């Protein structure tokens, strides 16, 4: 069977997509054709689209440090050699690299207890999980996208719809700066099609598996399906 993956990402603005990557930016990069930031974002989005075709995990499977690493690897293993590996260097966001393994295990242990004892409503539980995971910032890159997909998997497994992650807000994200205004749609839609027996193409991408990118600025509540959620704000200029 032949798969066609179509990726659109209006919210994640490229800034100058023609900017060449520096030697430091290219460390660990797998595709030899990637030369610009535009090339890189396109390659990463295609990789993520393929990762989202995997079977969605149950909360019990998701809340495991090994699974979280395997999810990151599936999202970026065609682009980065370090996909699925915890970072070894200090960054401008996140905890000391030496503390990452213990912190992630503590998070999944806590989240499993929250689910078992229904400590929080499903939406709040997933938001707390996402907030702590992003605060740890376990990987060299892709933490924001990884955290949002994991949180959507978690809240969906608790029988709630996935979050909007800033959909329909008139705010964009630029690689080199803070909030940028844009009139473009703000959802990060991944659409997948496959041929039917008659040769016709049909959409196979369930809405619950869509992932979206959040803007840099934002302690404001994000309504989605009647819900109010508050999300952490990374420092201005941080690539997520």
Write the layout of secondary structure elements.
Layout: E1 4-7, E2 12-13, H1 37-51, H2 59-62, H3 65-76, H4 100-117, H5 122-136, H6 143-157, E3 172-174, E4 179-180, E5 190-195, E6 201-203, E7 222-224, E8 227-229
Parallel strand pairs: 2-3
Antiparallel strand pairs: 1-5, 3-4, 5-6, 7-8
CA-to-CA gap between the ends? 34 Å
Ranges where pLDDT stays below 50 over 5 or more residues in a row are: 1-14, 171-226, 230-240
Most strands sheet: 3 strands, antiparallel
Structural class: alpha+beta
Record keyword descriptors for this entry.
about 240 residues, Fic-like fold, 3-stranded mixed sheet, about 10% strand, disordered C terminus
Word description of this protein:
- With 240 residues, the chain is of the alpha+beta class.
- It has a single domain, classed as Fic-like fold (Orthogonal Bundle).
- Helix content is 33%, strand content 11%.
- It is built from six helices and eight strands, in the order ββααααααββββββ.
- It has a three-stranded antiparallel β-sheet, with helices on one face. Strands 2-3-4 form a three-stranded mixed β-sheet, with no helix packed on it. It has a two-stranded antiparallel sheet with strand order 7-8.
- The two termini are 34 Å apart.
- Residues 1-14, 171-226 and 230-240 have low confidence and may be disordered.
């Amino acid at each position: 069977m032949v798969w066609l993956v179509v990726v659109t990402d209006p919210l994640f603005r490229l800034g100058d997509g023609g900017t060449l990557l520096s030697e430091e930016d290219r460390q660990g990069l797998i595709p030899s054709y990637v030369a610009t930031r535009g090339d890189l974002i396109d390659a990463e989005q295609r990789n993520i689209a393929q990762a989202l075709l995997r079977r969605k995990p149950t909360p019990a499977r998701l809340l495991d440090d090994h699974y979280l690493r395997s999810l990151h690897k599936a999202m970026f293993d065609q682009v980065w050699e370090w996909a699925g590996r915890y970072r070894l260097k200090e960054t401008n966001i996140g905890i000391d690299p030496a503390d990452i393994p213990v912190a992630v295990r503590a998070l999944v242990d806590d989240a499993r207890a929250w689910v078992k004892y229904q400590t929080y409503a499903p939406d709040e539980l997933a938001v707390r999980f996402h907030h702590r995971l992003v605060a740890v910032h376990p990987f060299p890159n892709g933490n924001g996208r990884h955290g949002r997909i994991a949180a959507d998997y978690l809240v969906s497994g608790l029988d709630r719809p996935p979050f909007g992650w800033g959909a329909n807000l008139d705010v964009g994200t630029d690689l080199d700066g803070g909030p940028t205004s844009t009139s473009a749609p703000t959802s990060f839609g991944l659409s997948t099609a496959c041929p039917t027996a008659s040769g016709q193409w049909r959409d196979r991408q369930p809405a619950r598996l869509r992932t979206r990118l959040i803007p840099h600025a934002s302690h404001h509540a994000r309504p989605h399906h009647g819900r109010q959620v508050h999300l952490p704000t990374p420092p201005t200029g941080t690539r997520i």
